[in-house]
Design a protein that fits this description.
Elements lengths: L20 H29 L2 H24 L20 H14 L3 E5 L10 E4 L5 E7 L9 H8 L10 E6 L5 H10 L2 E3 L1 H9 L20
Parallel strand pairs: 3-4, 4-5
Antiparallel strand pairs: 1-2, 2-3
Helix pairs in contact: 1-2, 4-5
């Protein structure tokens, strides 16, 4: 599956300068004034002293001023490149394997190293493992659930029993397309496990929200049993 593209910055682009009749007329007026002045100076120079170089310099100066005005007008009309469209991922249409790969692709996109999809039989709760850009070990369990199927406390408990003790995670997260039940969220908080629901996943995907390893993890309780 293709790596989801980070949402570009939402800064509003500058509006392209439109055609201004007033500014155009003013520019032509200035050029006409300079041309007339140059003509008068040239005639005076030729008529009084027959100094042709002075006349040439006057005309050259006028052309220089005109070229500067034209260049300034062009700079005011610099085209603004529109931002690239955001590529959306329909996570609801993915099966479990494709969803795990999509989460792994997000980790790769955001700078993780040694990213592996290890989900399957005998995975002991880890579906994606990676090394965060700051060197911490990231262990993620992926839950591709429908909107009516929330991640329960038993799902999080099974992951909590292995993510730190077995997989030696510095950052442990459960990522789902759905939501978490309140008991599941409470247990995760007690164990120091991050919960990334469907809204958080969309924010991570389009760049409006942080990756799991950039979120502040809750402090585990000593008697949580994780």
């Amino acid at each position: 599956m293709a790596i989801p593209v980070r949402r570009p910055r939402t800064d509003r682009p500058r509006r392209r300068a439109g055609f201004s009749l007033r500014e155009t007329a003013l520019g032509f007026g200035l050029v006409a004034i300079f041309l007339c002045g140059a003509g008068v100076m040239a005639r005076a120079a030729v008529g009084d002293s027959a100094d042709l170089p002075a006349a040439v310099l006057a005309v050259a100066g006028t052309l220089l001023v005109a070229s500067v005005l034209v260049r300034a007008a062009r700079l005011r009309r610099v085209a603004v490149v529109p931002p690239a469209p955001v590529v959306r991922v329909d996570y609801a249409a993915l099966d479990a394997d494709a969803f795990e790969q999509a989460v792994a692709d997000l980790c790769v996109r955001d700078g993780c190293l040694d990213v592996e999809v290890v989900g399957g039989a005998g995975d002991l709760g880890a579906d994606v493992v990676a090394t965060a850009p700051d060197g911490r070990r990231v262990v993620i369990q992926c839950k591709a659930y429908g909107p009516d199927n929330k991640v329960g406390s038993q799902d999080v408990q099974r992951f909590g029993g292995t993510c730190f003790a077995v997989h030696e995670a510095h950052v442990a997260a459960v990522v789902t397309t759905s939501e978490f039940t309140e008991p599941a969220a409470q247990y995760a908080a007690q164990c120091g496990i991050l919960c990334v629901d469907g809204a958080g996943l969309d924010a991570w995907t389009d760049g409006t929200g942080p990756a799991p390893w950039l979120q502040p993890a809750p402090s585990p309780l000593p008697d949580a049993g994780c």
